[in-house]
Records
---
Amino acid sequence: MSPPRLARCVSGCARALLLAWVAALLAACNAGPPAPGATVIVFKHGKLFGDPAPLRALLDEFERHHPGTVVREETLPAASDEQHQFYAINLQAKSPAFDVLAVDVIWVAEFAHAGWLRELTPQLPPHERAAFFPGPIEAVTYRGRVYAVPWFVDAGLLYYRRDLLEKHGFAVPRTWEELARTAQAVMAREPGIVGFVWQGKQYEGLVCNALEYVWSNGGEVMSGGRIALDSPRNRQALAFMADLVHRYGVTPASVTTATEEPSRHVFGQGRALFLRNWPYAWRLFQDPRSQVHGKVGVTMLPRFEGGVPAATLGGWQLAVNRSSRHPEAAAELVRYLTSAPAQRQLALAYGFQPARIAPYRDPELLAAQPFLATLERVFAEARPRPVTPYYVRVSQVLQSEFSAIVAGLKTPGAALAAAERKLREILADET
Amino acid sequence: MKLERELDRPLWYLLPGGVLLAAVTLFPLAHVLWASLERRSVLHGPPRFVGLENYLRLAADERFWNALGNTVYFAAVSVALELLLGLAIALMLARAWRGRALFYGVILLPWAVPTAVSARMWEWMYDAEIGVLNYLAGAHVNWLGSPAWALNAAIAMDVWKSTPFVVLLLLAGLQGIPQDVYRAAAVDGASGWSVLARITLPLLAPVIMVALVFRTIDAFRVFDAIYVLTGGGPADSTETLSIYAYKALFQGLEFGYGSALAVSVFACVGLAALLYARLMREALR
Amino acid sequence: MRPVLRAAGLALVITWCLAPFLWQVITSVRPAAELMSLPPLIPTRLTAEHYAAIFAGHPFLRIIANSALVAACTTLLALAVGAPAAFALALLRVRGRAVILAGVLAISMFPPIATVSPLFLALSALGLHDTLAALVITYTTFSLPLAVWLLTNFFAALPRELYAAARVDGCTAFGAFARVALPLAAPGLLAAGLLTFIFAWNEFLFALTFTATEAARTIPVGIALFPGLHEVPYGEIAAAAVTVTLPVVALACVFQRRIVEGLTAGAVKG
């Protein structure tokens, strides 16, 4: 290409760019600025729901009740890690760019300790706390004060193939030992069926799974403010978890790569007998196009002999940014979105699991979403992971050690001893 | 005629780039270096200067050495494979006659797909239960879940993704070599391999160096691909320095220690670059 | 190399590059019900529902436009700033040339996760939060090292006689740069430009941190917003991957043919 052609090419590109820029600017102008004098509250949350319309309708209603206030939603990717990273950068920089944020249940103590959240005790005074499940309330309380209001909850469940259990004459297992025996027996008789799938990849979900074994054996991570990780009960519980893969053979070795979706797919294709997962999977299994439609039952997770069933608490809470420029309006929005009518509406529209107890006894709601009736008891007893500002660091240690147990690289004793040593360093590290 | 007597001074050519780089990178880099000398943990109160304490902690940290080992292994194997494959492909492509533009585009595909997407796709392909690799091979290998295989599976994905980068650079280099050089060699009766070794490679040496250096830099800083594939597991067997730094910075909220980890990546890459420069000088002599 | 071997080699390479991408294409036209099941390998029926979904459920067209704008601006800016710098470093006498090159390289040696936080502080302070300009500035800066290094090599490899002849003919240094050096370094310009474009097209970390709304959202962040709380819509992700990759590849083909082959065909002179 001779120089004049090159020059023409470049100028052509430049012209095209200019046009594109102008077009983009014009398109941006269509959004339009809010009316002057209006208070704009930005609600930042991870992508939670498929159809944004019902939530938007709720926010529009809030705007009608509070003239002069405009609520703008901004979504973050659903991945918990990416949201945590975003909040870490923004909140540390004291950015006022958003007012209300949705926080994961494990972050509240951390963000509160870092001074990133506004105290919300007025929005959730003690006499109103009984209206929520106890687990989330424990998670949002730090040093006696409330820093977030529970919005919706999640907890671990056991899914099972009702048709296979009936065919081979087994009852729904109530203890872990029973589950292992049942799975082994059915696997022997049904080729191509895997016994029990759960989440064993090195990530937060593994800690949720592992703690369910630990707690259902009467063990603890922290007790009375002290670390109680390396105990005989915990070793026993985690030895069982490892045995699922290495001794009983009911869980495939590939559990070390499994997160919620891969395990859900294996079960959803009819290739597994038992699945431990969150409630979201139920709706997908009940879909008429699903291969396990009508064959799935759900119940609380089993316990060990002499223990109580335990489920890990998940879910999201609403909090107010300490650096927000409109704290009162933001707190109002939080109160509104966590109020009983709003939670009921979101439950109706999305099958959302409210953090309040009353909706689970509402006949109209139960008629529309019957699954909620099963969930109430599970949520009432769901346990939050250790509520400490250092939880994310604690979780990293636990993830690494638990992963070593599942992969068969370390015995439960060695892993727990190493974990306890590292946790002591983290938690003693206060200056 | 003196080339040195210029009316346009070099300064004018270098100024725009220099200003941009200085304006954008000086503050962040200084910040990282300074933060690595501080105890800057959000959960532990205001930052305070602690000198080399973070680096001492680094030296005693077994997780750091594990991550360093994983990173060096990953970088060494993937860069070597990418260079060899990239050279072979570039040589093939340079002599292709028709449809070269089409091949060029196709070969670029792995590099052009966004990492976030291709990492997810590979994670799914590698899945032991429902992945297509095990389906086609009829096997049941736990690619991403066994400590022995996981890092190698990640390397395979990185090689697939990054070889086009090397091909692109080397092809550009090859296209810059004038044809008469080869014609002269043909007249002298030189064989294929000797042309490659005595003419092509030495002429390509500077571009190979660029490819080597930049691939090494990227391999040492690898984060997205491995994080999606394995998250650093199982049991930290695929945790690289960047993943450790990410977890320290954005999960542990330890900005001081995380910055020290980032500086350690910088130091490793700097060492590697110096090594390459030395080797290249020796080889060319 | 014998032609047959070469053809076989090329076929192997094409298969290796194409196969995972082909898997994405197949996934993108698979009906949702069959998405995760493995027999059948090829779906029983084809569907465009995923392609429809990515444009209906998200402002994907706007997102693609944003990415295109950012990538194009970044590429032009990086080449416009980098090429003269490389020319000076290669052909003009610059003191401390090795130090400058090493310094430029050192900038790219830091992991981006460390620099994202202070950069965010700086850009927010300048009022550039949630703008495309923030992305263009950042991407240009971080693509300069590769562009400068690559082009320095290309300019240095140019025969000095051509450059000297141009000067003798009365060109200023800049004239020689624009009329002689640039066209001859076209393969290098194309390579640097393409790599910069792809970097800006696919970059995720800075895009996620510096932007908040669709006004400045780019493709990688847009795709990261597809998954819901637990569910991952593989079909949509595959459709998005195909939609955003093919234009880049087409661009590469066109430029390779027009610019490079056009130039190098004419460069076969005595």
---
Amino acid sequence: MAPLVDMRSVVKVYPNGVIANNGVNFQIEKGEIHAIVGENGAGKTTLMKILYGLEQPTSGEIFIKGEKVEFKNPLDAMHEGVGMVHQNFMQVPSFTVAENIVLGHEPTERLFLDKKKSVEVTEELSKRYGLYVESDAVTETINVGMRQRIEILKILYLGAEILILDEPTAVLTPQEIKDLFKAVRVLVEQGKTIIFITHKLREVKEISDRVTVMRNGKIMGTMLTSEATRKGLARMMVGREVFLDIHKNAMKRGKNMMSIRDLSFVSDTGRPMLRDVSFNLYAGEILGIAGVEGNGQTELVEVLTGLRVPAAGWATIGEKVVTGKTPREVRMAGVAHIPEDRLTNGLAVDVSIDDNLIVDRFFEPPIRKGLLIDYEEIEKNGEDMIKEFGILTPNGQLPVSSLSGGNMQKVVVAREFSSSPKILIAAQPTRGIDVGATEFIREQLVKKRTDGAAVLLVSADLAEVMDLSDRIITMFEGEITGVFPDASTVEEEELGYYMLGVKRQSKKEMEALL
Amino acid sequence: MRKFFSNPAVREGLRVLIAVSSALLLGFIVTLFVSEDPLGAYKAFLLGPVSKFNRFGDWIEESITLIFVGLSVAIAFKANLFSMGTEGQLLLGALVSGSIALFVPLPAILRIPLAIIAAMVAGFIWGWIPGYLKAYLDANEIVSTLMLNAIALKLYDYFLIFHIKPPDAGYNSSDFFPKEGTLMSFIPNLPFLKGVYTLFSDKTNITIMLYILIIAVIAAYYLIYRTPFGYKLRMIGANIKFARYGGINTKRTIILVFAISGIFGGLAGAHLTMGIHTKLIANISVGMGFEGIVVSILARNNPLLIPFTGLAYGYLRAGANVMERASDMSREMVFVIQALIILFVTAERFLPTIQKRIEMRKENNTHMEKLAPSDGGSHEV
Amino acid sequence: MKFDLVLKGIFSAMFLASIMRISTPLILPALGGLITELAGAINIALEGIMLTSAFTGVVVSAFTQNIWLGVLAGIAAGVLFSAILAYFHLYLETDIILAGIALNIMATGGTIFLLYILTGDKGNSSTLASGMVPVVEIPFIKDIPFFGTILSGHNIFVYAAIVLTFLTYIMLYNTKFGIHLRAVGENPTAATSLGIPVRSIKFTSILISGFLASLGGLNLSMAYLSLFQREMTAGRGFIALAAVYLGGRRPWGTFLAAILFGAADALSNQFGTLDIPSQWVQMIPYVITILALVIYALRRKAQITEQTKRFQERELAKVNNNNNA
């Protein structure tokens, strides 16, 4: 029988040169639950965005039920029965559940909305597919699980036969995950087909019929879930082909610069993002945090840099507590921060390079001179930084927006490094930038570490973590699952197991090493 | 040649020039239809302010008010804070300085500085209120400043009608300010300047406020571009998340921005009462606050350019006044021209500037960088 | 004593009826402001639209000697004026506030300018024989004591205001267009993802607000007064926006808030006879609006902190249980 969905030789290359999908052949059978797994950057979300019409492939074809299709936008895809449940819910908070489900295609009675019918339709769909929702509840008051069910019911209402769920369990509590799986099984019983994007291997084993592993834009393999092991999957997901060439002197660990104890954080949708995270940061060492994005790393960095207040726990530098303080206070304590999103936090793109370089020191001499700020100093500072960090620009008065991504990041790095920090927190420091800048920044990180700073490196790029770090911690679902005191002796597969929750070290094992 | 036109400043200037010329042309076409002597009328409009000395004075006086108001707006807008409150700050500044000029029994050398400082303080306070509401409660500053404008107007009217107006006055106005409360001409009354002095003080109301204005422009420029506070202001305006990440105390800065903007509004009020009218009258300002917004926007919120846009805007107004007196055209036509200028200059799609093109390219870059290679991954909703 | 005369006046039917009349030119533009606010395209130009329609109605009714033509022309002018706002904002990407300010300036100046050309008078249009819209006497009701005076005998715009509030409510909450409009204002990304045309909905909402504001303007020049006066809107366009926020951004709330402003105005006139300064009474609604803003913001904050706290406590409890286990 011809597959329900047949994607052939799909290639997707982005304008900045990144090859997200590299000749992917992917088939889905009717009525199956198919999981696609892979690390960040593997290409799984891109592939599904193409299937869903949000992106167009650079080349390749899609066939649905044997017919060739071309999706210019999600509505085209919806027309053919392909629906996607996003992570960012497309809902109007003040509307009721029923209103959100039928939004855009409301049943009408002549000129007016047929509200009764909306509720009827909602209840009917809800019952048929076992997706419990309160039709009259106001959307912003309900829990995340129900909000997700709204998204699912929405596309069922529009006639979706093929449902693509993008990391659906990322926002759910364990009970809600159980409910979701029950619902998924009902959907399949009713003749739907489900595609599941995830990196949670336990869930793959629990719910899916088949699983496809993607890595670096290619499909590594497709198999029956019953024949796959979590270890095997992890191995396929995580192996790498490129070995980075970083020269590192032996680590000379100094004193404990920052103590982090029992950090916990709950998001405002109620989900615990950090659970009892504890470790030490030592001078002269790069501590890398390996893990798929979304397992608490972002929140950890935000807590440690004063951008968030933890629900429990603390971090200290010497005697000083640095959690629950303002970013200024944290910086004054000697912490520098390369943020994971340079465009949102790290830079003001319409402002000059020179001005971006001084946000952490404009109020002190030499930039500040009495009541004023000294422009000559600012320009000189800019010149020095541009030279020292090789920022490609004719002068420092141009806005940051005139720079390439890599050079923009260099501005961030120049600023943060030049403050002579005792502690350096770098989150995704080489994401989205060219090779030259990447090499440079990595070298700089190592240099800082060798000069005695304590470096915390958070990166979704496992190769980067492994090559740069002296010691590695793995995080999964907000917890530390493993600590590896010597990064050079651990294999990526092994790390993969811990990153994906397949393996876990016990508290006792980790105690001495954190 | 191509290089000349791809310079962003040139394109901006060109845009403004085309907008202004189109508006003026349209105005002329209207005049052709309406007036019996269109050429005479339009000549009066375009050349009026420089034709007679007192008209020249009108132009400068109006412009001084407009520039003060423009500076007030610029300070707030540069921080991306949409304060509409200059109107109210102006009124209270006028009220307070006018009251002191009228009633406080001090010699001029003390009374006048006191009045001016009081106007600044009144403006500061009236700006502080919406600043606090915005910083700590995230209250919509457009609504709060509009409300405070209305309240300020009521306060002004109340005090004018029930406490300041002489009981036998026929209409709502105070007495003329006594000599001790009147601003002196900006030309000092020295023997060797006698001719110039008489000329300016007889035919114009250009007072020492002019000097204060010059200081204000320089002060505003320095404040925004050369002080740590100004740096904070600009970063908040450019990217408030960046400002917070970098350690700036955004709440405190926001309040100060509103309050300092209020100071300039207060000064505008002092100029209106003690400089131009030398008494407190009803309707002392009709929408000056909003015109100040226009002056600032046309100057891209840059204090050094505001004197120019203020003078240009003031020129149009003064020209319209002359036109009305010298012909059968009414001065209100200038408002239509002003409105057209605003619409054309602020229409981003009308001759998109290089700035816009860079922005659009930047948006694409951002989009791309967000997509690759951090593909997948679970982000919290 | 004068005071109890005033009290008697306040509680008289005449006074309450006058509140309705005074509030009408606030209710109508406020409804327009509400609709654009909910669509995410706040209309600052209500003032200008009202002036435009007020002027056009007077002029056309005078020259055609036909009241209804005047009304129609006034509406057409107002809607066209709002279309300019919509075009500049949605197609030429002008900031909507700047465009609104520009149009207000244009209307203020333009109406005086044209007034002068047509009548040679810059103050008002008294030389023009413009008309007034009819007053409606509702049979039976007009004979009820006390309430009859309040409910009957108003000009058509007063009744239109009430009916239109009702219609606005129906439109916003019971029609496809209304629900799409609210979706566009609250979450345009979601709306786009479902194929809802954001731009055309915003455009239509601005035109509708133009229609409503036009009625308010016509009310001023062809019912409340029988002529056009320069700047006769006297800030009502902005009070209308305040009423939208004070009324919690809902139709009947806006209606009541507008009446509050109108009542304050009427009250202040009454107090005038007592030599109590009217300004203090007039100030009340503005102060209330600011207080409402503050209260609303505080409530929002409290809500969020409470919710986060609840979650945190729940999770910490779990963690503690795990530790103890």
